Records
---
Amino acid sequence: MQRCSLILLIGLSMLGSTASAEEELLVYSGRKPKFIQPVIDEFTRTTGIKVKLQSGNSSYLLNLLSMQHESTDVDVYISNDAGNLERGNSLELFQALPDRLVSSVPANLRGMNNHWVGLSGRSRVLVVNSQSPLANSISSIQDLAKPQLKNRLGLTNSENESFIAGVTVYMRSLGEQKMMQWLKAVKDNTGGKVYKKHSDIVDVVAKGEKDVGLVNHYYVYHYLKKHPSAPIKIILPDHKASDMGVAWNVSGVAISRYTKQTPAAVKFLEFLLSVKGQEMFSHVNLEYPVRNDVAVSKGIPERSSYHIANIKMADIGLYREQTIKMFHLISMP
């Protein structure tokens, strides 16, 4: 009997150590899997910690986390924009991140009180058909309101998080009244047709179905990798020092306030913010690393080469509802 008991205890002990070795994090991610899965796979290879990824709309996943509260199994939340991250912060869904973890990231690319941190940046650019007679007359997002672009403008729908974030930056720079006028004009210039995906906008501009589109920069570079002779060019709008600057947004990450695996979650964030993790965002996704000591991918304009709008990423969340209210007032599609 004693021998059987001893064997049983040893068996239970081994099971316990195996469970500990096979840590698994549940991550809610508002990013498309292709943009985050390669980094996750490398993290698991490096640390042995498994990651279960549940992808979906950033707003939907944040609302789900908010409803679940203490009952949630979610350890980490990733958003494709700063707006939802700061909203989650205001709902007290995240825990404060250690200073040592976020110190490599500039303060304007983090949340209020460091409850979330940016992972990768993107600039809002104009993709223009280089064969269009209007190609040389566009240099600012305000040019998108010109009547000459009637039916010739490609925009995502007003539910797109990057569109919401970009307009929030413009509003904070130019004022609400001017942005209301701009929105009414660009709505008219879409001809009532908007797009769900940035990649669709780049495609229709390349085909000449639209003259210009407003997109995140990396979609244009990915398209040109596949179609190097496509008649399109990128314009960094309002990029001079005397202008308002190019709108930026970040994807970012937070640790759930209710996680029971804080040490493993911290390791995950450490990897995402490490030089190796940042290089993957830069070279695989063609995004901007949030660390200044990691280079951008070849062919992407250096951050220092153009003026970026002086708006904190946290403001994208703080003024998000004001932007959505404007959309509702003019029935933005």
---
Amino acid sequence: MSAEPSGDRTTASLAVVNGLVLGEDGPVRRSIGVAGERIAWLAPADRAPTAQDSEAADHRSPARRWPIVDAEGLVVAPGFIDLQVNGGHGHDLTSDPLSMWQLGAGLARHGVTSFLPTIVTGPPGAPDEAMAALRRRPAGYAGAEPLGLHLEGPMLHPDRRGAHPERYLVPPSAELVERWSREAGVALVTIAPELPGAIEVIELLRARGVVVAGGHTTADAAAAALARAAGMTMITHLFNAMEPLHHREPNLVGLTLGDDRLVAGIIVDGVHVDPMVVDIAWRSKGPAGLVLVSDAVAAMGLPSGRHRFGRRSVTADEAGVRFDDGTLAGSTLTLDVAVRNLISFTGCQATEALATVTTTPASVIGADSRGRLAVDARADIVLLDHDLTVVVTICGGRVLYVREGGRDRVDPSLVAPAG
């Protein structure tokens, strides 16, 4: 059940009370006050906020000033951030970039409050169309916040193109990226760092505030190291669409596993990467070095079976999303499931798994106000049950999703009537 704020609550105020905030020393009961889009105060759950807590009245008294979200028995975490999502619920962002807003509205049910709409290799005008769509924010939009585009291509190696159409691949050039900048809405670019001209392009993009990731690549360790020195800081879906690790030729995978300066995105669906290999990556990189990504495509959220998106058909089932030739074409993974999978595959702590979808991705893209629960941080908050299933999602201080059966936890003034 999706839930949007009622009325014209563009500057919502609310209090999330009595939740369990996970920390290095274990869970601590906290209450969190939200004013507008920001966290105004945090207080121990056994203490009423004082006037210094943003001049709020006692949020648990009958005369409370702010409406309540009851987090008793629930884990309270920062909202999730997905740095690679190509589509979902029938929406393909490359062929229909304006559907990013419809997709974003649905991502809240999975705890996602921020994402990078990901545009894969396509016709030459696709990046410009996506930048234009990013500027066309619908009035009254309520959903996960697009933080900029992830352009995955077209500067990829043909031998490791995966699902990317070869006819649209092009070599790196300053002309191609002339209009790509953080200011224009490009947050992340995936490039094969061994291609001629790639180092110059990496340096140009970094100077414009764009994060650069290596991916769809045949790069050896030397080429990868040159790209890292030029400003490459991330790896796109580690292990997938790159040369496998060899004990005498460590290549990009080996450099990534051994270098703390590189953060690796990884698709933890049990299909793209075997659980045993996920565990190896976890032991090498840990929560500060891995970012869980969904790599979701339009088939995410749709029934298993045949689907057609753009000009190609895919089959989505327990074996993943694949073209007729067996090539993986993305996933139907959601980020909340990825968190639970990481814990299952590695035995890591919940607080560590949550870092891979909150603090770490926020750090990678420089989204300093997100991915943390702190005064003045953006009020992106997700409430999870003991199985880390999403119960309530709050984005920018607005209640966007309440799981069926959880409505009694949320003040009625915060949630639009069902239907």
---
Amino acid sequence: MGNIVAIIGRPNVGKSTLFNRLIGERQAIVDDLSGVTRDRLYGSCVWNSKTFTVIDTGGFVPESEDVFEAAIRSQVRIAIEEATVLVFMVDVTTGVTDLDESMASMLRRSTKPVFLVVNKVDNGQRMMEANEFWSLGIENTFFLSSMTGSGTGELLDAIAEQVADEEPRDVTLPRIAILGRPNVGKSSLVNALLGEERNIVTDIAGTTRDSIDSHYNKFGKEFLLVDTAGIRKKSRVHQDLEFYSVMRAIKALEECDICILMIDAQTGIEAQDMAIFRLAQRRHKGIVILVNKWDLVSKETNTARDMEKTIKEKISPFVDVPIVFISTLEKQRIFKAVEAALEVYENRNRKLKTSELNEVMQEIIERNPPPAYRGNYIKIKYITQMSGAHPVIAFFCNHPKQIQENYRNFLENQLRKHFKFTGVPVSILFRQK
């Protein structure tokens, strides 16, 4: 089960600023204008050795007034259904509003852990005013200022306590998730693979609902498809569909070993695809890119090589990723996609012999030693692969903090050149010998 922390609350209470603090990068667009948060707002956070994905629901609010409150309420419902921990944010400067109260009553009925965060508490006067929020009846209440960051540590401690450790899963079968924007052909691919109408495929965007793992066992290949299958309840409004599918995608991503990212040949790789790609990369999942609907693209103007070059420019610097052109409709090269995914799974589980690693890499390092730092010669003495769910290579040396980013990239490229890590994010660590 993926650990998802959802930040909910009215617009302009400071959700994006808190989100940025939690994931430690300015990933959300922070602006004082309402509704500017339009980026795909999710990222991963590591705290007290727990890892979780944080979602800022602010990016999923419709602009128009009339659907606005209804949409926020339905978002809260989805978050209660899907997230592990709920962070409910309010603003001390506006006091308790009707919308805050109605959200609080929904949250109080939930069995999930809820943390009430009163934001913009940055002086003694506001500290006094913040006490009125106890009236919302939420036991775990935190006063903080997401602008200055005061109080976020305590909140993170409390969240980390509620988040489960990553369980070692039954590793006998590779777990593959098929992700991509609505209508890109994910369900058709699943049906083509399993040879049965698992999910009823229709042309309405986002008709698939509920995660069902399907067991594939044919032609000597066996794996589990972590598939977001099933039918969406009629009551879901179109507005939330995107939020809902993002929640689902993150869940599937957390639960899989290999992420098959499907993109549409006609539109190419878009911002939302990139967000999934980067998240998969940060969570060290194996990645395969499938370009679907290749049969609909005019081959005169666009060759597979051009398309591949464009994709690699976008996903760089991590370009060592298999890209397979398919058509789920024509059932073209679908088996090739499966083979690519299983190959990436093998690469992700590859364990290199220490002797072989040192033999190959030491020779390369001798030819291209790390640049000296302030007159200190850096000597890499020994290299080994640490145990872990994905490849982690440790280089033991005398000044580990002095090794520059570009040299680290050089080492990663050399590792990729001499050992098969295609489709797999590799972690490189420098340790004191």
